[in-house]
């Protein structure tokens, strides 16, 4: 689809979860009784977090944070990590907005993706948000990613009526 010389590249849909409803760990973790500990990132983790983000997200379409933004997020304790051998292997960035939190980025190092750490990170984030008095968490998800959408629905997220259309200028335009 072209619009003013731009091509539609991606459609994201909003999802939201009320933190007033019960948080059921089994919906996040599947059959696992628990997961590895989730810590806040430290300033020394900056390079590892940047590498995981760069390996996981498109620098234009996903707009990952700059180094300075990421350091500010780390200092504000908005970046959570799962570690192995002292190094971050999975990261999540959630940004508070009043009474809610926006899940902006969640990613796992390619070598560890089979460990299903997304649920561990989501559970820790939702529990921390509730403890901080937040009442809702939101995220954007690719509208074509039906498996991820269903996974989030099991965790209590519902689709919103918000869509984010990303257009790019084709190289031949």
Write a concise synopsis of the structure shown.
The protein has helices spanning 25-29, 46-56, 67-75, 117-131, 146-154; strands at 2-3, 6-18, 39-40, 79-84, 87-97, 100-108, 136-142, 158-168. With 173 residues, the protein is α+β, with helices and mostly antiparallel strands.
Outline the structure in words.
This protein is α+β, with helices and mostly antiparallel strands and 173 residues long. The chain is built from 5 helices and 8 strands, in the order ββαβααβββαβαβ. Strands 1, 2, 3, 4, 5, 6, 7 and 8 form an 8-stranded mixed beta sheet that branches. The longest helix is centred in the C-terminal third of the chain and has 15 residues, at 117-131. The protein is globular, with a radius of gyration of 17 Å.
Main features:
single chain, 173 residues, alpha+beta, 5 helices, 8 strands, globular
Using the alpha-carbon principal axes, give the shape.
globular
Q: Report the average pLDDT across residues.
A: 87
Name the structural class: alpha+beta
Element-by-element helix/strand order: EEHEHHEEEHEHE
Biggest sheet layout: 8 strands, mixed
DSSP summary, beta strand count: 8
- How big a fraction of the residues is strand? 35-45%
Low-pLDDT stretches are none
CA radius of gyration = 17 Å
